[in-house]
Predict the structure.
Amino acid sequence: MLEVPQREVSNAGPDIPDWPARQPSKLPVLVILHQHHSNPGHVGQWFRRNGYALDIRRHFNGEPLPETLAHHSGAVIFGGPQSANDRIDFIRREVDWISVPLKERKPFLGICLGAQMLARHLGARVDHCCRGSVEIGYHSIKATEAGQALDFPSRVYQWHREGFDVTRECTLLATSDGAYPNQAFHYGSGYGVQFHPEITFAQVNRWSGSNPVRLLLRGARPRQHHIETHLMEAPRVHRWLDRFLGRWVTGELARY
């Protein structure tokens, strides 16, 4: 893996307003995306509002991953249409690369596919629901006893058809009564969430509007439910995410 110069993305898409960095001394956050049109949504907005530049890399498109996170505040791997089980070179490299933040005790966050990659890196199984169900739209979750202090929102946006097991070395933080019981976990400085707290209204509208076949799958909510529920639930989810990221990026959660 070759290091490339750090770069601040100032034109990251319509969901990421170009706020000026308030404290240039803060190290950037590495953001790994899996599609050309993807952007980090509310996660990216929070970092930029709070003075963190975004070092966005699309590894699937040949952009290399850093050999160390010494020059970053942390790293976030987002979701995508791929599977953590795919025998594709860049997927294997990303799964292996997660050892970098874990060994260096740097804040790491995996969202959906990123969480599944973290689970797979730690030796856990990633697979479809045995009943053929998906989670698409807003679904309920609840904190475990170990996750109570993180005060998870009760309903979160989901878009996945695979889930993950949690190894004994990990701490399960949030669960659900649905097809995918494992919703959030942590291991050392790494956190994984099955759901999409970063989702913006524009993304909900785009995802639900451009994937009509997915909305016919068992467990998927109708498109109107996506939009109406997002208007009600997103403020709560984003307030939770703001608190979480504030503790995550400073390393406080690495000691959790």
DSSP finds six helices and twelve strands in the chain. The first strand starts at residue 29 and ends at 32. Confidence is low (pLDDT under 50) at residues 1-14, 18-23.
